[in-house]
Amino acid sequence: MSARHAKSMEQLILEDGRYPPEAYGFLHEGLGLAVRQVHGGQTGSPEQRHVTGRQLCLVLRDLALERWGQLAPAVLGKWNIRNTLDFGNMVYLLADAGYMKVSETDSIDDFRDVYDFQEMFGGEGEFDLKE
After folding, report:
1. Residue ranges making up the domain that contains 86
2. CA distances for 55 relative to 12, 37, 127, angstroms
3. In a domain, 127, yes or no
4. pLDDT tens for residues 92-108?
5. Domain total for the chain?
6. Residue 122 counted as domain residue
7. Rg of the chain's alpha carbons, rounded to an integer?
8. Which of 46, 127, 48 is nearest to 82 (CA)?
9. Which of 81, 86, 88, 123 has the fewest Cβ atoms surrounding its Cβ within 10 A?
10. What pLDDT is recorded for position 26?
11. Would 2 be classed as within a structural domain?
12. Grouped pLDDT means (10 residues each) for the chain, 131 residues
C-alpha cells in the first residue's frame, strides 16, 4: 500500500463518517455511467475519462430517480445526502486521499447548487417516506 493510501478506502470512509459506504458505492456507479455517457465508453487516461462535477451530479440524479423513483430523496437522505455539494464532499474526500483524480480546473464549488433536491425529487420539508 502506498504512502498516499495509508488507509483503505473503507477505513477512510468509516473514519470520515459523513456518508455510509453504500453512498460511495452509488457514487462509483454514477461515475461509471457518467464516463460512458460523456465519453461513449472510451477507456484511457484519467484525463480522457474526466467528467465535471455538474455532469456527475446530473447522472446521479437520473440514477436515483430510475432506481428509487419517489423514494429517491428518502434513500439519499438516509445516507446524509441532501444537496449536490454532498456529492462533491464525497468526491473530494476520495480525491484528497488519492483514490480519485480531479483536474486542476475542478473545484468543490462545481458541485454546489447544481440542482435543488426538492425541485428534482419533489416533496415538502424533510424527506419523508409517508408522502
Report:
1. 7-117
2. 25, 9, 24
3. no
4. 999 999 999 899 999 99
5. 1
6. no
7. 15
8. 127
9. 123
10. 98
11. no
12. 67 96 97 86 61 94 94 94 97 94 93 90 47 32
Q: Which three cell numbers stand for residue 91?
A: 468526491
At 43 the pLDDT is 59
What is the per-residue pLDDT for 129?
34
- b/e map of 32-41 (b: 16 or more CB within 10 Å)? ebbbeebeee
Does some domain include residue 15?
Answer: yes
3-state secondary structure string across the chain? CCHHHCCCHHHHHHHHCCCCHHHHHHHHHHHHHHHHHHHCCCCCCHHHHCCCHHHHHHHHHHHHHHHHHHHHHHHHHHCCCCCHHHHHHHHHHHHHCCCCCCCCCCCHHHHCCCCCHHHHHCCCCCCCCCC
